[in-house]
Amino acid sequence: MSKTFSGRQVVKALRRRGFHIDHQRGSHVFLHNLNLNISVVVPLHRELKKGTLNNIIKKAGISLQELKELV
């Protein structure tokens, strides 16, 4: 994975995929997709670690390529 993503970029991409911000607790944004009944938590860090990013895209049901296109 060559490009790194910030938390804000991931939140923006997920909102384009139909996720809505449910609430925020500190630096963590809780997003929910009502159609798919999926909840995802995204930390608002400058750079997300590889494992954290992989867990978010796996839980959201999108690929890394889709995430790159949405950002």
Task: Explain what the structure shows.
With 71 residues, the protein is an alpha+beta fold. The chain is 39% helix and 25% strand. The chain has three helices and three strands. It has helices at residues 7-16, 50-60, 64-70, and strands at 20-25, 28-33, 38-43. It has a three-stranded antiparallel sheet. Strand 1 and strand 2 (28-33) form a beta hairpin.
Which helices and strands appear, and what pairs or packs with what?
Blueprint: H1 7-16, E1 20-25, E2 28-33, E3 38-43, H2 50-60, H3 64-70
Antiparallel strand pairs: 1-2, 2-3
Question: What is the compact description of this entry?
Answer:
The protein has 71 residues and is α+β, with helices and mostly antiparallel strands. The protein has helices spanning 7-16, 50-60, 64-70; strands at 20-25, 28-33, 38-43.
Features:
71 residues, alpha+beta, 3 helices
Strand content: 25-35%
**Subunit arrangement of the protein:** single chain
Helical residue percent band: 25-40%
In spatial order, strands of the major sheet run 1-2-3
Number of strands: 3
**How many helices?**
3
Distance between the termini: 15 Å
Instruction: Describe the sheet with the most strands.
Output: 3 strands, antiparallel
- Class by SSE composition: alpha+beta
Gross morphology is globular
**Average pLDDT level:** 92
Spell the H/E element sequence: HEEEHH
The unreliable regions are none
Give the C-alpha Rg. Answer: 11 Å
